[in-house]
């Protein structure tokens, strides 16, 4: 099950399409969908969580809390809508494209990918791009 909290922070987003897409990403990665909660929030809220749980005193666009067991994918994906809007402007992409990138980035962390090294970051970016390109096929 995929749950979206604070949807009011996003205008005109196809949450059913996002949910279907994310489910297909899990299936493509040969995992089992547990419960994934995507929490949309502001910078202040995410910074508080970043400091409290990760000892990181800086703004970020996404934080993932992994509750996976064996092949079952479960976790919380906290997303700063403010950061996503800024990123979209910086990268000259639509807000919806950037929100999809950040959500799938969080999901990829739950699926076992990381971005701690240059090579793992490259692999993760390639996976993000791969799944972004399949969004229209998977959202149905």
Description:
52% of the residues lie in helices and 20% in strands. It has helices spanning 15-28, 43-54, 81-91, 95-110, 118-133, 135-138; strands spanning 2-5, 32-41, 62-66, 72-80. Strand 3 and strand 4 (72-80) form a beta hairpin. With 140 residues, it is of the alpha/beta class. The protein has a four-stranded mixed sheet, with helices on both faces. The protein has a single domain (2-138), classed as 3-Layer(aba) Sandwich (Collagenase (Catalytic Domain)), CATH 3.40.390. Helix 3 (81-91) packs across helix 4 and helix 4 crosses helix 5 (118-133). The protein starts with a strand and ends with a helix. It contains six helices and four strands.
Primary descriptors:
140 residues; alpha/beta; Collagenase (Catalytic Domain); 4-stranded mixed sheet; 20% strand; globular
Helix percent reads 40-55%
* CATH topology descriptor: Collagenase (Catalytic Domain)
Name the CATH superfamily classification. Answer: Metalloproteases ("zincins"), catalytic domain
Measured distance between first and last alpha carbons: 16 Å
Strand tally: 4
State the CATH class. Alpha Beta
Taking all residues together, what is the mean pLDDT?
94
Question: Mind telling me the C-alpha Rg?
Answer: 14 Å
Class from secondary-structure proportions: alpha/beta
Overall tally of domains: 1
Major β-sheet strand ordering: 1-2-4-3
Low-confidence stretches: none
What is this entry, summarized?
With 140 residues, this protein is an alpha/beta fold.
């Amino acid at each position: 099950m995929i749950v979206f909290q604070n949807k009011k922070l996003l205008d005109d987003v196809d949450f059913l399409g996002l949910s279907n897409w994310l489910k297909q990403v899990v299936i493509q990665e040969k995992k089992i969908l547990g419960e994934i909660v995507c929490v949309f929030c502001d910078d202040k809220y995410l910074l508080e969580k970043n400091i409290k749980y990760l000892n990181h005193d800086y703004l970020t666009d996404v934080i993932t809390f992994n509750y996976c067991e064996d092949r079952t994918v479960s976790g919380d994906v906290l997303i700063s809508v403010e950061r996503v809007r800024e990123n979209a402007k910086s990268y000259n992409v639509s807000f919806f494209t950037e929100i999809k990138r950040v959500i799938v980035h969080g999901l990829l962390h739950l699926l076992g990918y990381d971005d701690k090294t240059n090579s793992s970051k490259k692999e993760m970016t390639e996976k993000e791009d791969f799944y972004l390109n399949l969004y229209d096929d998977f959202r149905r």
